[in-house]
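To: structure desk
From: M.T.
Subject: fold request, one chain
Message: Could you run this one when you get a chance? Sequence is below, nothing fancy, just the single chain.
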Amino acid sequence: MRATKNLHVCGSCRRPFVVPDAIVSAPPGVDGLVAELRCTDCGWTHVGAYPTAAIEALDRALDLTEREMRTALEICELAEELERIDGFARALELELITPEDF
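Reply: Done. Structure tokens follow.
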């Protein structure tokens, strides 16, 4: 199976989990770069020559995905911290925690 137009989208499962395993200069007479692509979801791989603009678009897509993942992690960490604070406040209200506990 061939790579899709958007290189970050898998040519097999069509999910946006493609990463480059290797990128090298194309041989003489071939424009662009040669990239080995791999889907981290289904394991699909593909090697092909791509224009530099397509590789740059893949890089931007990976950067965007990383930012989205970091944002999601921050939200999860914040939600977890708020749950701990709420639990502590409930314990104080129910007098399950007293000054002697500290």
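Reply (cont.): Residues 18-96 form one domain. Let me know if you need anything else for the meeting.
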